[in-house]
Amino acid sequence: MKPMTKNSKIHKIYVSGALTDVEKPTECKALYEKIGSLCNEVGMLAYVPHLYTDPVNNPNITPSEVFEKDKHQVGISDLVIAYLGALSFGVGMELAYAETNDIPVILLYEKGKRISRFPRGIPTVIAEIQFYDHEHALNLLKTVLVNWRANNI
Fold this sequence. Notes:
It is a single chain. The chain is an alpha/beta fold. It has one domain (12-151): Rossmann fold, CATH 3.40.50.450. It contains six helices and five strands. 29% of the residues are buried.
C-alpha cells in the first residue's frame, strides 16, 4: 500500500449487493462487510448500505428514503464493488446509476455461476472477479483495489 501523503485522495467505495429475499442473508452481509473492511484496510472509505438501511434491522426506513440515500452514496463514490451472486433489482439499479455517472465498477461472483451479460457489459466495469470462496474473492479483490488505487491517487 502506498503511504498516504497530504495530497492523497481518500477514495469512497460503494459496496453493492442483494439484501432482499436472498438465500443466505447472514453470509451475504458478512461478505459485504468483509469487502468494506478490505477497502478500509487498503486506505479507502467504504459505504456498506445494509449497515444503515437493512430491510430487516431498519424496517421503518421508507423505500423512498432508501432510494435517495443509496443513490446519493453511489453518486459520491469513486468506485462501486457489486456482488452479483444473488439476484437483485437494487444492485442492477445501482450499477446503471454508476455507469450513467462514469463511476468505475468491479463485479464479483462465484466461479461457474451464470450471470447476465447486461451488467458484465457495462463500459465502466474495470474488473470482473470470479471466485471459489469468500477468502479467494477477498484476495483477488485486494489486488485489484491496490492496483486501482495506485493508478487513481
